[in-house]
Amino acid sequence: MLARSADNLFWVGRYVERADFIARILEASLRLSVVPSREDNADQVWRSALDSSGAGALFDASGRTLDELAVREFLAFNSENPSSICNCIIRARTNARAVRTALTVELWEGINGAWNALEDQGRPARRAEFAEFLSWVKSVTVAVEGAASRSMLRNDAYWFLRLGAAIERADNTARLLDVKYHLLLPEDEPVGGQLDYYQWTTLLRQVSALTAYRWVYRDSVKPWLVADLLVLNRQMPRSLASCQGAIVDALERLAADYGRRGPAQRLAAARLGQLESASINAIFQSGLHEFIEEFLAANNQLGQAITEQYLS
Amino acid sequence: MSFDEMTGQPGSGEVRESYRALARWLDESPPDLLEARARQAEFFFRRMGITFALYGEHNTSERLIPFDIVPRILSAREWRMMEAGLVQRVHALNLFLADIYGAQECIRAGIIPADIVLTNPYFRPEMTGWRPPGDIWVHIAGIDLVRTGEDAFYVLEDNARTPSGVSYMLENREMMMRLFPDLFSEHRVRPVDTYTDLLLQTLKDAAPASAAREPCVVVLTPGPYNSAYYEHSFLADKLGVELVEGSDLYVDNAQVFMRTTQGPCKVDVIYRRVDDDFLDPLTFNPDSALGVPGLMLAYQAGHVTLANAVGTGVADDKAVYTYMPEIIRFFTGEDPILHNVPTWRCREPDALKEVLSRLDELVVKEVGGSGGYGMLVGPAATQEEIEIFRRKLIADPAAFIAQPTLQLSTAPTLCGTQLAGRHVDLRPFVLTGPQGARATPGGLTRVALKEGSLVVNSSQGGGTKDTWVLDA
């Protein structure tokens, strides 16, 4: 297949996943911001929403004042923010249109339908309506994923789509974990206190894993177990280890189809090996924050290797 | 009064033979059925993203071309005549191009003035002395026909560069078969979906002698922002070949390669939907980001075939068009089967004088214009528009031709809840390979949806219809 087509498919996967992620961040932030606490808490929540979406620097450069409405608008609708939900949907559709013939009718209709419906959604400002918009975004990504998995041939087109989604999801989970370290705990708040509890459960909600947590650990919410669930647990589809597994799967299927492994396969497999042999205690000892930073850098490096090997 | 495809003369109470079964069906159908089917068709087209882009519009840059669900019907006899005329004309176009880039005998014989050919903006001096495989220059042609009476068909223009619209011909048929299966069982309609097989064969047959036994064919598009992008992707899909943009190709050692996920892949035939000017920034427009640097080198070395060939634009120029009857006689030794619309060449002083005195009743066209842009329809124009054209004509007469305002035939069309006659034209598609020229039965019928309007172009609010050729 054309390298450009593979690139388009890869980015369809990434943008759809990103739209979903931004929607989840916003949903969790809406919830967190109404938690009763010190006065400056709300702004911190929106600051961390910006930072964990990777749009913090861009927001600051735009000269906007940080408040809930400004951040919501910037992350959901703003046309200058390349990763706003609207832009993600538009870009996913632009990339899909460029490879229209590589997509099944179902998948194309899912993406094109979302793009067509974007206008009707408007730009709701009131919390309740904004929350509805976010649910709509999540339903779009579920529909697109479902269409891909139910209707596409398992050929290279499918694996590039999946690869983009897996890389993006790994990136997103790592950023979401970073939220904990961007949110400074109030000094007089004991660790494990009320505020902490809200933050960790919110984090679990963002990845739809609060119930899963209880099923897996049968324990109250503890930060190291939350970290274990999101970093190492292979049952948890958004954990870093699961995402890395999905990346390796897609890359190995491509290598098998093409009869050739390359740097991307070797890099991805090595990362997966490291994650499989790691324990959460060791990660905490050497610093969870450092671990996540390192993961983000390695994921980025892998993205570049994939681009060089297949997409250019 | 215009000729009507269904009734001959409107109000005559007669129904022409080829329309009898349809007329009966229309009479018997409940009134809301057509409306419901029309809504269904629109819903389906929109959902599939079958759109085209309009130049110069910012917001709603993707539009549907309105589809009219009442088919336009041609009898077997009518089609036989058209087909013979189309084959003759496209054959002559190919011989003409081979001649002007070769021996130039038609110029020496005085069939056409040298300057019209040699100073034509679409004439490519680079191609002089060059011969494409099989001497085929125009592999894919679209010939625009209009009708003014029972046996009066005219060629309005020849499209010998990158004619578009064939995807609508194919999609319209799909839609009609889905919406009205009963109608098809009552008529013997000749199929159009043979077009894609024939196109693929035509492109493969055009491969250079050096190509692999199974030549690699691609469709080259300017990209998703081009007005005909849907058609480009549709054709690539139906042909089962890659849809490439300029940046997907590169030239190495005078050979063309495409970048794939498995490394470089040699390309033998390029069905290009990019104009000559944008093909190769090293030879033509240096600012073009659409083209492939070095492509002309590979082309002239004979390592890749472009369809259509470079330089065919000179054959669909409107100034050259006026000489087509003589060109056909000269190259085929036959009288033209399909006639030209009588045309004034404004470059000739007598003609210019007459045109200027009758601007309010004529159609004036720029020789280099297309798509309904840059033309004056005298009877429909305001006094101001006429004066603007008068000044343009006086300033540069050679840039214009003029034709009488033809009363294009009308065909029954669903307008709101009523059937009414609307003016139509027809663009049949002709493919040329080693076995000669072949026309797909039917073509794209374009319809001016506005009452009384004669402008059928989709960029000017025209719609399309399925076109049936009956197999008698």
Automatic annotation (TrEMBL), chain A:
Lineage: superkingdom: Bacteria
One Pfam family per UniProt: Alpha-E
Membrane-spanning ranges: none
InterPro entries the UniProt entry points to: ATP-dep_Glu-Cys_Ligase-2, DUF403
Ranges where the DUF403 domain occurs: 1-311
Protein name as annotated: Alpha-E domain-containing protein
Naturally occurring in which organism (per UniProt): Alkalicaulis satelles
Lineage, uppermost ranks: Bacteria, Pseudomonadati, Pseudomonadota, Alphaproteobacteria, Maricaulales
